[in-house]
From TrEMBL:
Name by which UniProt lists this protein: Large ribosomal subunit protein uL2
InterPro entries linked to this entry: NA-bd_OB-fold (IPR012340), Rib_uL2_dom2 (IPR014722), Ribosomal_uL2 (IPR002171), Ribosomal_uL2_bac/org-type (IPR005880), Ribosomal_uL2_C (IPR022669), Ribosomal_uL2_dom3 (IPR014726), Ribosomal_uL2_RNA-bd_dom (IPR022666), Translation_prot_SH3-like_sf (IPR008991)
Domain called Large ribosomal subunit protein uL2 C-terminal: residue spans: 124-253
Family classification: Belongs to the universal ribosomal protein uL2 family.
Length: 278
């Protein structure tokens, strides 16, 4: 898909890069959308629980079928669409029984192709969904279930894929995009291929306004605040944070501190954690 890096005709264009997506339909399917209410990062009591959220362009929420539970019914890809709520494209499917559903579009899927979801052995081709136990090792998969029947929860963002490595004791071993190696039940469903819109990683917003359109508000550095507002605050001029390790505004350790519970039940399925950042 074409990626445009603009000439610096204005300050906002100087660092901007825009991706021209390979979509074939601009308006969403009316039966498959609903209004998305913006919370502004606030909970039901009106308190901000997620900072730096608010504003942004209005958007409609697409109902995406992550379960693909219409088994053994042929579906035809009739359109590839943009979804403002995710980085990947969507594919609109028309099933032979008349039903219409959205799915996360894999890279290389074309309009007019016929795909299928099944709990049995079917053809290995991009867009087909089947249990991991029927997928040959070494193949790229995405939209993977963590437990059978749950629906895809892993590897759904633009350009992502996981590698099926091996099978052992009823479990399939996967290498995830983060580098983590994890086991899931071999009856879990996964879609063949890589997630679409692989050039999304090259997009450069270029100016603050495009970030605001996405619904994000500015983030103030802690060291630019007063000591009463942040542990990093205070000092004359440009000073370091004055601490051995960075902290959150509420004094808890930040950046590189493990947050996963040491006693979480699913820890036994993680063969090796993702590599540490250097």
């Amino acid at each position: 898909m074409p990626f445009t890096l603009y000439q610096p005709t204005t300050p906002g264009r100087r660092h901007a890069g825009v991706l021209q997506r390979d979509i074939t339909k601009k308006e969403p399917e009316k039966r498959l959308v609903r209004g998305a209410k913006s919370s502004g990062g606030r909970n039901n009591m009106g308190k901000i629980t997620v900072r730096h959220r608010g504003g942004g362009a209005k958007r409609l929420l697409r109902s995406v079928d992550f379960k693909r539970n219409k088994y053994d019914i042929v579906a035809t890809v009739v359109a590839l669409e943009y979804d403002p709520s995710r980085t990947a494209n969507l594919a609109l499917l028309h099933y032979s029984d008349g039903d219409k559903r959205y799915m996360v579009a894999p890279e290389g899927l074309k309009v007019g192709e016929k795909i299928m979801s099944s709990q049995k052995q079917i053809e290995i081709k991009v867009g087909n969904r089947l249990p991991l136990k029927f997928v040959p090792p070494g193949l790229q998969v995405h939209d993977i279930e963590l437990s059978p029947g749950q629906g895809g929860v892993m590897v759904r963002s633009a350009g992502a894929w996981a590698i099926l490595m091996s099978f052992e004791g009823g479990l399939a071993r996967l290498k995830l995009p983060s580098g983590e190696i994890r086991s899931v039940a071999e009856d879990c469903l996964a879609t063949i291929g890589q997630v679409s819109n692989v050039d999304h990683i090259n997009v450069r917003l270029g100016k603050a306004g495009r970030r605001r359109h996405l619904g994000f508000k500015p983030t103030v550095r802690g060291k630019a605040m007063n000591p009463v507002d942040h542990p990093h605050g205070g000092g004359e001029g440009h000073n370091p944070i004055g601490l051995k390790h960075p902290k959150t505004p509420w004094g808890k350790p930040a950046l590189g501190v493990p947050t996963r519970s040491a006693n979480k039940a699913s820890n036994r399925f993680i063969i090796s954690r993702r590599p540490k950042r250097t």
